[in-house]
Amino acid sequence: MPVRSCEAITKLLRSKNVVEFKDLQAVLGNASRATTFRYLKQVSYQRSYNHNGRYYTRTDRRRYDRHGLFSHGDIHFSRDGTVSETIKRLVYESTAGLTSRELQDVLHLRVQVFLLSAVHHATVTREKLGGLYVYAHTDSAVRELQLQRRREQLDGGKDAPIEVRVDDEVIIAVLLALLRHPEATAAEVVRYSRGRSPPISMGQVAKVFTRFDLESIGKKGGSSKS
To answer: What range does the domain containing 87 cover?
Structure first.
Protein backbone atom coordinates (compact mmCIF):
# COMPACT_ATOMS: atom_id res chain seq x y z
CA MET A 1 0.00 0.00 0.00
CA PRO A 2 1.40 3.42 -0.91
CA VAL A 3 2.16 5.86 1.86
CA ARG A 4 -0.85 8.08 2.34
CA SER A 5 -0.15 11.78 2.31
CA CYS A 6 -1.60 15.05 1.08
CA GLU A 7 1.50 15.33 -1.13
CA ALA A 8 0.25 12.35 -3.14
CA ILE A 9 -2.98 14.23 -3.89
CA THR A 10 -1.08 17.41 -4.74
CA LYS A 11 1.12 15.52 -7.17
CA LEU A 12 -1.90 13.94 -8.85
CA LEU A 13 -3.68 17.29 -9.23
CA ARG A 14 -0.55 18.83 -10.73
CA SER A 15 -0.19 16.00 -13.25
CA LYS A 16 -3.74 16.22 -14.65
CA ASN A 17 -6.12 19.05 -15.53
CA VAL A 18 -9.06 17.34 -13.83
CA VAL A 19 -9.54 14.15 -11.80
CA GLU A 20 -12.47 12.32 -10.28
CA PHE A 21 -12.89 11.32 -6.66
CA LYS A 22 -12.07 7.70 -7.48
CA ASP A 23 -8.68 8.88 -8.76
CA LEU A 24 -8.03 10.59 -5.44
CA GLN A 25 -8.99 7.43 -3.58
CA ALA A 26 -6.71 5.35 -5.81
CA VAL A 27 -3.64 7.50 -5.22
CA LEU A 28 -4.22 7.02 -1.49
CA GLY A 29 -4.30 3.24 -1.86
CA ASN A 30 -8.07 2.92 -2.41
CA ALA A 31 -8.84 4.87 0.72
CA SER A 32 -12.37 5.28 2.02
CA ARG A 33 -14.35 8.43 1.24
CA ALA A 34 -13.88 9.75 4.77
CA THR A 35 -10.12 9.19 4.67
CA THR A 36 -9.81 10.74 1.21
CA PHE A 37 -11.72 13.84 2.28
CA ARG A 38 -9.50 14.12 5.35
CA TYR A 39 -6.38 14.31 3.18
CA LEU A 40 -8.08 16.37 0.47
CA LYS A 41 -8.93 19.24 2.78
CA GLN A 42 -5.21 19.69 3.47
CA VAL A 43 -4.51 20.71 -0.15
CA SER A 44 -5.66 23.56 -2.36
CA TYR A 45 -8.28 22.32 -4.82
CA GLN A 46 -11.61 23.16 -6.40
CA ARG A 47 -14.61 21.12 -7.50
CA SER A 48 -16.46 21.65 -10.75
CA TYR A 49 -19.60 23.73 -10.43
CA ASN A 50 -21.34 21.55 -13.00
CA HIS A 51 -21.54 17.75 -13.32
CA ASN A 52 -22.69 17.72 -9.68
CA GLY A 53 -19.20 18.62 -8.48
CA ARG A 54 -17.85 15.35 -9.83
CA TYR A 55 -14.49 16.73 -11.00
CA TYR A 56 -11.56 18.15 -9.04
CA THR A 57 -8.69 20.39 -10.12
CA ARG A 58 -5.79 22.20 -8.49
CA THR A 59 -6.17 25.82 -7.52
CA ASP A 60 -4.19 27.92 -9.98
CA ARG A 61 -5.30 31.53 -10.34
CA ARG A 62 -3.35 31.88 -13.59
CA ARG A 63 -5.82 29.60 -15.39
CA TYR A 64 -8.90 31.71 -14.75
CA ASP A 65 -10.31 33.98 -17.43
CA ARG A 66 -11.59 37.53 -16.98
CA HIS A 67 -14.79 36.16 -15.43
CA GLY A 68 -12.90 34.10 -12.85
CA LEU A 69 -13.72 30.83 -14.63
CA PHE A 70 -11.68 27.89 -15.90
CA SER A 71 -12.97 25.20 -18.26
CA HIS A 72 -11.68 21.84 -19.38
CA GLY A 73 -13.98 20.72 -22.18
CA ASP A 74 -17.49 20.89 -20.74
CA ILE A 75 -16.22 20.80 -17.14
CA HIS A 76 -16.31 24.22 -15.52
CA PHE A 77 -14.68 25.66 -12.40
CA SER A 78 -15.02 29.02 -10.69
CA ARG A 79 -12.62 30.78 -8.38
CA ASP A 80 -15.63 31.25 -6.08
CA GLY A 81 -16.35 27.53 -5.88
CA THR A 82 -20.14 27.49 -6.17
CA VAL A 83 -22.55 28.76 -8.81
CA SER A 84 -24.34 30.93 -6.26
CA GLU A 85 -21.18 32.72 -5.15
CA THR A 86 -20.05 33.12 -8.76
CA ILE A 87 -23.36 34.68 -9.79
CA LYS A 88 -23.20 37.07 -6.85
CA ARG A 89 -19.67 38.19 -7.78
CA LEU A 90 -20.45 38.59 -11.48
CA VAL A 91 -23.55 40.63 -10.70
CA TYR A 92 -21.70 42.81 -8.19
CA GLU A 93 -18.82 43.41 -10.60
CA SER A 94 -21.04 44.22 -13.58
CA THR A 95 -21.42 47.81 -14.72
CA ALA A 96 -25.03 47.42 -15.85
CA GLY A 97 -26.38 44.44 -13.93
CA LEU A 98 -26.88 41.12 -15.73
CA THR A 99 -29.78 39.18 -17.20
CA SER A 100 -30.22 35.44 -16.77
CA ARG A 101 -29.31 34.92 -20.43
CA GLU A 102 -26.05 36.83 -20.05
CA LEU A 103 -25.13 34.79 -16.98
CA GLN A 104 -26.05 31.55 -18.73
CA ASP A 105 -23.84 32.48 -21.68
CA VAL A 106 -20.87 32.93 -19.35
CA LEU A 107 -21.46 30.00 -16.97
CA HIS A 108 -22.69 27.50 -19.60
CA LEU A 109 -25.56 26.19 -17.50
CA ARG A 110 -29.11 27.18 -16.62
CA VAL A 111 -29.10 29.74 -13.83
CA GLN A 112 -32.76 30.55 -13.22
CA VAL A 113 -33.07 28.45 -10.06
CA PHE A 114 -29.90 29.98 -8.63
CA LEU A 115 -31.14 33.49 -9.43
CA LEU A 116 -34.51 32.91 -7.79
CA SER A 117 -32.70 31.65 -4.68
CA ALA A 118 -30.36 34.66 -4.71
CA VAL A 119 -33.30 37.06 -4.89
CA HIS A 120 -35.15 35.13 -2.16
CA HIS A 121 -32.11 35.34 0.14
CA ALA A 122 -31.48 38.98 -0.81
CA THR A 123 -27.93 38.37 -2.06
CA VAL A 124 -28.87 40.11 -5.32
CA THR A 125 -31.81 42.24 -6.40
CA ARG A 126 -33.72 42.38 -9.66
CA GLU A 127 -35.72 44.90 -11.62
CA LYS A 128 -37.62 44.57 -14.88
CA LEU A 129 -36.24 46.76 -17.65
CA GLY A 130 -37.01 46.49 -21.32
CA GLY A 131 -39.11 43.40 -20.76
CA LEU A 132 -36.26 41.52 -19.03
CA TYR A 133 -35.26 41.04 -15.41
CA VAL A 134 -31.93 42.66 -14.66
CA TYR A 135 -30.08 41.34 -11.61
CA ALA A 136 -28.15 43.96 -9.69
CA HIS A 137 -26.22 44.81 -6.51
CA THR A 138 -27.95 44.92 -3.13
CA ASP A 139 -26.35 48.25 -2.27
CA SER A 140 -28.85 50.89 -3.35
CA ALA A 141 -26.27 53.37 -4.64
CA VAL A 142 -24.40 50.76 -6.69
CA ARG A 143 -27.68 49.27 -7.93
CA GLU A 144 -28.93 52.63 -9.20
CA LEU A 145 -25.70 53.17 -11.14
CA GLN A 146 -26.01 49.71 -12.68
CA LEU A 147 -29.63 50.22 -13.66
CA GLN A 148 -28.92 53.67 -15.05
CA ARG A 149 -26.17 52.20 -17.22
CA ARG A 150 -28.56 49.46 -18.38
CA ARG A 151 -31.19 52.04 -19.30
CA GLU A 152 -28.59 53.92 -21.33
CA GLN A 153 -27.67 50.71 -23.15
CA LEU A 154 -31.31 49.93 -23.89
CA ASP A 155 -31.92 53.47 -25.13
CA GLY A 156 -28.80 53.35 -27.29
CA GLY A 157 -29.41 49.82 -28.56
CA LYS A 158 -26.01 48.65 -27.33
CA ASP A 159 -24.92 45.04 -26.97
CA ALA A 160 -24.88 43.07 -23.74
CA PRO A 161 -22.30 44.29 -21.21
CA ILE A 162 -20.68 40.87 -20.71
CA GLU A 163 -18.63 38.96 -23.24
CA VAL A 164 -20.19 35.82 -24.70
CA ARG A 165 -17.72 32.93 -24.48
CA VAL A 166 -17.51 30.64 -27.51
CA ASP A 167 -15.21 27.60 -27.32
CA ASP A 168 -14.25 25.12 -30.04
CA GLU A 169 -17.04 22.68 -29.08
CA VAL A 170 -19.69 25.36 -29.57
CA ILE A 171 -18.20 26.40 -32.92
CA ILE A 172 -18.17 22.79 -34.13
CA ALA A 173 -21.76 22.22 -32.97
CA VAL A 174 -22.99 25.36 -34.78
CA LEU A 175 -21.13 24.52 -37.99
CA LEU A 176 -22.43 20.94 -37.94
CA ALA A 177 -25.97 22.25 -37.52
CA LEU A 178 -25.43 24.51 -40.54
CA LEU A 179 -24.08 21.61 -42.59
CA ARG A 180 -27.31 19.74 -41.91
CA HIS A 181 -29.48 22.87 -42.31
CA PRO A 182 -27.50 25.27 -44.55
CA GLU A 183 -30.27 27.89 -44.68
CA ALA A 184 -30.90 27.98 -40.93
CA THR A 185 -31.09 31.26 -39.08
CA ALA A 186 -29.30 31.77 -35.77
CA ALA A 187 -32.55 31.15 -33.89
CA GLU A 188 -33.09 27.91 -35.81
CA VAL A 189 -29.57 26.73 -35.00
CA VAL A 190 -30.35 27.26 -31.31
CA ARG A 191 -33.53 25.21 -31.73
CA TYR A 192 -31.75 22.43 -33.60
CA SER A 193 -29.20 22.30 -30.77
CA ARG A 194 -31.74 21.84 -28.00
CA GLY A 195 -30.91 18.97 -25.68
CA ARG A 196 -27.19 19.65 -25.84
CA SER A 197 -25.41 20.02 -22.49
CA PRO A 198 -24.43 22.73 -21.81
CA PRO A 199 -27.03 24.48 -23.97
CA ILE A 200 -25.98 26.75 -26.84
CA SER A 201 -27.32 30.27 -26.53
CA MET A 202 -28.43 32.77 -29.14
CA GLY A 203 -25.49 34.98 -28.20
CA GLN A 204 -23.01 32.18 -28.87
CA VAL A 205 -24.57 31.31 -32.23
CA ALA A 206 -24.60 34.97 -33.26
CA LYS A 207 -20.92 35.26 -32.38
CA VAL A 208 -20.08 32.22 -34.53
CA PHE A 209 -22.12 33.68 -37.42
CA THR A 210 -20.15 36.92 -37.15
CA ARG A 211 -16.73 35.27 -36.74
CA PHE A 212 -17.15 33.10 -39.84
CA ASP A 213 -19.12 35.63 -41.90
CA LEU A 214 -22.23 33.44 -41.90
CA GLU A 215 -24.73 36.27 -41.81
CA SER A 216 -25.79 35.59 -45.39
CA ILE A 217 -26.56 31.99 -44.49
CA GLY A 218 -28.79 33.11 -41.66
CA LYS A 219 -30.64 35.60 -43.84
CA LYS A 220 -31.51 32.96 -46.39
CA GLY A 221 -33.51 31.09 -43.82
CA GLY A 222 -35.81 34.00 -43.07
CA SER A 223 -37.36 34.49 -39.65
CA SER A 224 -37.62 31.67 -37.18
CA LYS A 225 -40.72 30.64 -35.30
CA SER A 226 -39.61 29.86 -31.78
So the answer is: 83-156
